[in-house]
Amino acid sequence: MDLERIEAAVKEILIAVGEDPERTGLQETPKRVARMYQEVFAGLENDPTVHLKVFDEGQDEEMVIVRDIPLHSMCEHHLLPFVGKAHIAYIPRNGKIIGLSKFARIVDHFSKRPQVQERLTSQIADFLDENLDPVGVAVVIEAEHMCMTMRGAKAAGSGTLTSALRGSMRSDAKTRAEVMSLLRGRI
Ligand SMILES: Nc1nc2c(ncn2[C@@H]2O[C@H](COP(=O)(O)OP(=O)(O)OP(=O)(O)O)[C@@H](O)[C@H]2O)c(=O)[nH]1
Ligand SMILES: [Zn+2]
Questions:
Q1: Does domain 3-40 correspond to CATH entry 1.10.286.10?
Q2: pLDDT at position 8, please?
Q3: Annotated binding site
């Protein structure tokens, strides 16, 4: 990531909105924003496959659900945060599982780039589907978008719910109903 370029751009924005980038409170701001972007967009650079330490100890064909994974991402339309929770359910194949913490790391990875909620949801589902080859996987995300609350429509408190279903979660009506009712228990 080109930190110097971000700094220069932020300084330009400050001037363009009518601020004085040399006043005491703003002198360090371009540098801070550059470091902040490096952190919140780290998912553009890092490799998510490092989180795929696979164990073969899962209960075959039994569903695993990790709920309420905290999520912070940046809406690509306005570069404002959207904040919420991800819920992931999957049915391992041949006992192929990953550590529970890795789901939070994978959610974080795909959140840390300019995003829309729909694509974030699909990217997490596709990544797990392609790399774990589970019988089925479901990802549900609920989030509040600052671009809808602090500006524009000013729809404070509105929530957006997205889901991505793969494998038996999509094709098998009974499995889909089961996972949705388990996830709905808390959503
Ligand atoms: N589908 C989808 N839309 C999003 C997401 N994040 C923000 N948006 C929307 O992206 C749209 C961009 O609309 P535009 O009309 O191009 O931009 P705008 O004039 O700033 O729109 P307003 O927010 O309505 O003021 C808005 O409706 C946002 O609510 C997201 O994750 N998914
Ligand atoms: Zn937005």
A1: yes
A2: 98
A3: 75, 78, 147
Distance 40 CA to ligand 1 centre (A): 20
Is 7 catalytic? The answer is: no
Total-model pTM: 0.93
As annotated, the residues of the chain forming the CATH 1.10.286.10 domain(s) are 3-40
Residue pair 71/141 in contact (Cβ under 8 Å)? The answer is yes
Q: Ligand 2 centre and the CA of 17: distance in Å?
A: 20
* Segments of the chain assigned to CATH 3.30.1130.10: 48-184
Question: Mind listing the pLDDT tens digit for each residue in 84-109?
Answer: 999 999 999 999 999 999 999 999 99
145 included as an active-site residue: yes
Q: What is the CATH T-level fold of the domain 48-184, as seen in this structure? A: GTP Cyclohydrolase I, domain 2 (3.30.1130)
Q: Alpha-carbon distance 184 to 187, whole Å?
A: 5
Q: Nearest to residue 54, comparing CAs of 131, 147, 140, 157?
A: 131
